[in-house]
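We emphasize that the prediction below concerns an isolated chain of 157 residues; any contacts that depend on oligomerization or on bound cofactors are therefore not represented. The input was used exactly as deposited, without trimming of termini.
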Amino acid sequence: NIKCYFLRGILLMNKKRILSLVAATMLSVAVLAGCGSKEEGMKDGKYAVESKADDKGYVSSLAIEVKDGKIVSADFDMTNDKGSKKDDEGYNTAYKAKSGIDSATAFKTLGEKLVEKQAADIDAVTGATGTTETFKKLAAKAIENANAGTTDKTVVE
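Result of the prediction step, given as a token string:
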């Protein structure tokens, strides 16, 4: 009887050791997998992209900043030789009367959505559907550049 209890005790100890070893291995794999994925994400830095001028002479531009692998700011604008659409009172008054939103609000909202979602595929800003599509193209390129670590300004067709 004493031999049986002794052998059972040894078997139970070995099972506990094996389970501990398996658990430690699984934990190590999970930690290493987490380390690897960070290297594949966006690289910290500032990334700027812009479009070619549209038929009214406006160039859309987006500048994002990435810290700790995440977009922390996004500044979108549309400018021509007279300045920014955000500052054009005549344009914004007419645009707001028609669509319910002005350029400054639309541009800010687009940037906030990008920071929140961390992806270019954001929902359209009501009243600024065309602007949202332009923004999404620029955001996709900016994120692509951030993943590659390409900090040179890029022109998007």
